[in-house]
């Protein structure tokens, strides 16, 4: 019960009016930063660290942590309402979120995303309280071979994303994989497909590609007058119905599980969690046939997963002192700047501080829920702006956002180019989801494969002799085999029907 | 565009607060060389070739704030991340040499990008006028606490006994860590195999702590917190003297294995910047680096302060280039 009394003391310290206000300010700033594509939590926290110099340590970290998860929610708002993914992790939410918006169900999507984020974040924080140390050990078991096999599971889930035509699905996946191959070879160190431009050495950055394919692609398609335009929902349509909640609940549960477990692995970003959560829904949800055309599960699962991931990612920071993502690295900088070294000793040396920060994670998640659900009505009013005006604003917004990522005009050109790609995909009925999946997983699978082979000195059996890796590979095989058999067994007449799963 | 306004307001606020938090000792005395001509008309742009929030950025923002009060000028930090600093250096090399644009220079990447023709750098050593050096962070090697390897000599002997058996993390080909392995092999004949983690230090650390790789190679600043936590044992530092952060850890050189590899962070103007501007900035930087409060703040962040003025930095640049010229063919041989 020691933990419990520590946590209570933490709550007592975190619930002072000053800390509450700071958490609130952090959530608001985070949400606002998240709205602009390109300014993610990393840059947000980095820029605002000086603001916290005058605060005491706990307050400073509470505020920065609030910014950290506030941005995740801000990105959701633009994804759902405007089809602009603010960050990699909310890209997949665009697919069903924006379809819901087109059906006038934007309010429901945002509310479910808020509730899912709250549940995912809270459960992940409870995990942090109860079992931080064993969980951190679990994260360490995921070495390069295990990670490779995990990504293979992700790629296997691709079969669920492919939609009505295998050919168009594979085209989309291959384009994503090709884009992912641009950049400096991770092992040989030589540039590939960079055309001598240093801007491409790190690979094509995700955000301009995603913003182009989703945001600009949609704008261009609308300009042609073919796509359905979103409309602002009425007040009654803002709240989820009982059916929505019943359908979202299992998706939120699965999203929490996936996001939490993957968040424990240092060096893996939120985007993977939300992708895997979405792909799993496509594969195992009861309503999987509706995913892609505005199903509530398609918002609930990835949004829950990415928040569960964000909170679980603090486990390796507190227990091992490893920053699991760039944003957490900046947060770690805030600890260091205040003379604290994150790691196991922090629990012993500064227990009150650690528990105050953990308590503030619960409070911050609650604030985010209380802040955002009532504001859903306000956000959806954005859609009441006449479409010609709104589309011009969106264009300005995505151009600024693309520039802001690296302060680079090249990213703006990339975004424009991929906007045209997005339009072509829409016209030719090529689904976008496989592209997102391979674009994000591509670089990871390459590094993990080659690192594994360096470790094993070229011996491929490393993937089969390690239990976790073997288990994951079996899971991947089961997914692929069951999908192939499943489609074979389908009655002939039904197979020809469009599954309505294209985006 | 309300959001943008909010954002820029927040930025401005951040800048103001940072300014207040900085305690300058010099009392605002004007530096000799009359910097007013160089720096007062327009804000100075400080190009940081790395992401906001990274350690280069954190050090540069601290330096910018301190220089502002020394020079009575405005310095705007602009992040131009990409290609391990190459994008930022390209922007710096192409900027007007009027004293209004300066940039961060990190070794070894600023040198390697010039020497490695596959990177097609649009600049070379002569494109820059060095201002001064802020940080030298030597590489070091750590083992798990239960490892029988305790000293640099233990490591060399273990590697000599079974060539290529021991594996070490690097942060990518032609990174500091990779150079450590190549230089160690060149000097002692001991072969240690690299496992390249181009994505950076966190996955490398995870693979090491998870028992997948024997040795963790990293900068002293990255290893210090983990050593304090007892997660790793640092066995040797690749510096010319012991690190103040790890006073109990010997250097490889003191055990007779003369391997020195460090990353360093400094600043430069584009070549052709008026000499008086370079001198004025270099002197202001020297004053900042002699401020004990500033040094203490850097150390809190794990930034190892090490100052060189414009002239000493230029010489260090030349010497470092010679070292990497001998090592780069070894990287090529591995490709």
Automatic annotation (TrEMBL), chain A:
InterPro entries linked: DUF112_TM (IPR002823)
Superkingdom assignment: Bacteria
Keywords associated with the record: Membrane, Transmembrane, Transmembrane helix
All residue ranges annotated as the DUF112 domain in the record: 20-437
Transmembrane segments: 20-49, 61-82, 108-132, 144-163, 169-188, 200-221, 317-340, 352-371, 383-403, 409-425, 432-449, 461-485
Protein name (database record): Tripartite tricarboxylate transporter permease
Protein species of origin: Pseudonocardia zijingensis
Taxonomic path: Bacteria, Bacillati, Actinomycetota, Actinomycetes, Pseudonocardiales
UniProtKB/TrEMBL annotation, chain B:
Cited Pfam families: TctC (PF03401)
Coiled-coil segments: none
Keywords: Signal
SUPFAM superfamilies given in the database record: Periplasmic binding protein-like II (SSF53850)
Protein origin, superkingdom: Bacteria
Signal peptide: 1-20
UniProt xrefs under PROSITE patterns: PROKAR_LIPOPROTEIN
TM regions (residue ranges): none
Family: Belongs to the UPF0065 (bug) family.
Protein name: Tripartite tricarboxylate transporter substrate binding protein
Organism: Pseudonocardia zijingensis
């Amino acid at each position: 019960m020691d933990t419990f009394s520590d946590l209570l003391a933490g709550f007592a310290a975190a619930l002072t009016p000053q800390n509450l206000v700071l958490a609130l300010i952090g959530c608001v700033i985070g949400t606002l930063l998240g709205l602009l594509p390109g300014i993610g939590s990393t840059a947000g926290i980095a820029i605002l660290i000086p603001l916290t110099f005058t605060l005491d340590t706990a307050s400073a970290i509470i505020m920065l942590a609030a910014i950290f998860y506030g941005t995740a929610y801000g990105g959701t708002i633009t994804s759902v309402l405007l089809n602009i993914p603010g960050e990699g992790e909310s890209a997949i939410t665009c697919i069903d979120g924006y379809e819901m918006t087109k059906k006038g169900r934007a309010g429901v999507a945002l509310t479910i995303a808020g509730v899912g984020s709250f549940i995912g974040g809270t459960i992940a924080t409870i995990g942090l309280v109860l079992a931080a140390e064993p969980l951190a050990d679990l994260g360490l078991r995921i070495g390069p071979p295990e990670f490779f096999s995990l990504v293979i599971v992700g790629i296997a889930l691709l079969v669920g994303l492919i939609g009505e035509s295998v050919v168009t699905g594979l085209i989309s996946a291959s384009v994503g994989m090709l884009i992912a191959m641009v950049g400096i070879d991770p092992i040989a160190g030589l540039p590939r497909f960079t055309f001598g431009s240093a801007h491409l050495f790190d690979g094509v950055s995700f955000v301009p590609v995603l913003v182009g394919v989703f945001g600009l692609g949609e704008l261009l398609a609308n300009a042609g007058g073919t796509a359905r335009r979103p409309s602002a929902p009425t007040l009654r349509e803002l709240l989820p119905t009982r059916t929505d909640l019943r359908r979202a609940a299992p998706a939120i549960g699965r999203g929490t599980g996936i996001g939490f477990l993957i968040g424990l692995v240092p060096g893996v970003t939120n985007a993977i969690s939300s992708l895997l959560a979405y792909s799993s829904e496509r594969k195992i949800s009861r309503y999987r046939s509706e995913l892609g055309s505005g199903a509530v599960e398609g918002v609930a699962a990835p949004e829950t997963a990415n928040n569960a991931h964000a909170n679980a990612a603090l486990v390796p920071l507190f227990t091992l002192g490893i920053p699991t993502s760039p944003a957490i690295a900046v947060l770690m900088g805030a600890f260091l700047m205040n003379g604290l070294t994150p790691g196991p000793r922090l629990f012993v040396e500064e227990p009150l501080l650690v528990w105050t920060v953990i308590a503030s994670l619960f409070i911050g998640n609650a604030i985010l829920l209380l802040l955002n659900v009532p504001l859903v009505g306000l956000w959806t009013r954005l859609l009441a702006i006449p479409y010609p005006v709104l589309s011009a604003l969106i264009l300005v917004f995505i151009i600024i956002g693309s520039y802001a990522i690296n302060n680079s005009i090249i990213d703006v050109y990339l975004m424009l180019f991929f906007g045209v790609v997005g339009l072509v995909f829409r016209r030719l009925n090529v689904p976008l989801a496989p592209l997102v999946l391979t674009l994000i997983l591509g670089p990871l699978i390459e590094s993990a494969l080659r690192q594994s082979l360096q470790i094993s000195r070229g011996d491929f059996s490393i993937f089969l002799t390690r239990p976790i890796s073997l288990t994951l590979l079996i899971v991947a095989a089961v997914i692929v085999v069951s999908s192939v058999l499943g489609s074979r067994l389908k009655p002939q007449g039904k197979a020809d029907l469009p599954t309505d799963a294209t985006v | 565009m309300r959001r943008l306004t909010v954002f820029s307001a927040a930025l401005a606020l951040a800048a103001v607060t940072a300014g207040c938090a900085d305690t300058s000792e010099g009392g605002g005395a004007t530096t000799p060389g009359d910097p007013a001509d160089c720096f007062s008309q327009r804000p100075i742009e400080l190009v940081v070739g790395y992401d906001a929030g990274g350690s280069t950025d954190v050090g540069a923002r601290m330096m910018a704030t301190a220089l502002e009060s020394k020079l009575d000028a405005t310095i705007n930090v602009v992040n131009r991340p990409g290609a391990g600093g190459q994008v930022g250096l390209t922007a710096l090399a192409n900027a007007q040499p009027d004293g209004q644009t300066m940039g961060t220079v990190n070794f070894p990447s600023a040198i390697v990008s010039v020497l490695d023709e596959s990177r097609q750098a649009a600049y070379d050593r002569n494109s820059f006028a060095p201002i001064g050096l802020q940080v030298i962070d030597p590489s070091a090697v750590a083992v798990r606490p239960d490892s029988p390897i305790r000293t640099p000599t233990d490591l060399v002997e273990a590697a000599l006994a079974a060539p290529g058996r021991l594996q070490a993390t690097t942060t990518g080909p032609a990174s500091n860590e990779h150079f450590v392995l190549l230089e160690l092999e060149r000097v002692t004949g001991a072969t240690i195999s690299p496992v390249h983690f181009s994505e950076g230090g966190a996955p490398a650390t995870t693979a090491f702590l998870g028992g997948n790789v024997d040795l963790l190679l990293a900068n002293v600043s990255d290893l210090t917190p983990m050593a304090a936590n007892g997660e790793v044992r640092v066995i040797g530092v690749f510096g010319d003297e012991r690190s103040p952060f790890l006073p109990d850890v010997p250097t490889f050189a003191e055990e007779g294995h003369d391997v020195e590899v460090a990353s360093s962070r400094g600043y430069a103007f584009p070549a052709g910047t008026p000499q008086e501007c370079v001198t004025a900035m270099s002197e202001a930087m020297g004053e900042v680096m002699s401020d004990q409060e500033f040094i203490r703040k850097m150390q809190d962040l794990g930034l190892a302060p090490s100052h060189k003025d414009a002239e000493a930095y230029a010489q260090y640049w030349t010497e470092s280039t010679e070292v990497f010229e001998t090592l780069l063919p070894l990287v090529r041989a591995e490709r």
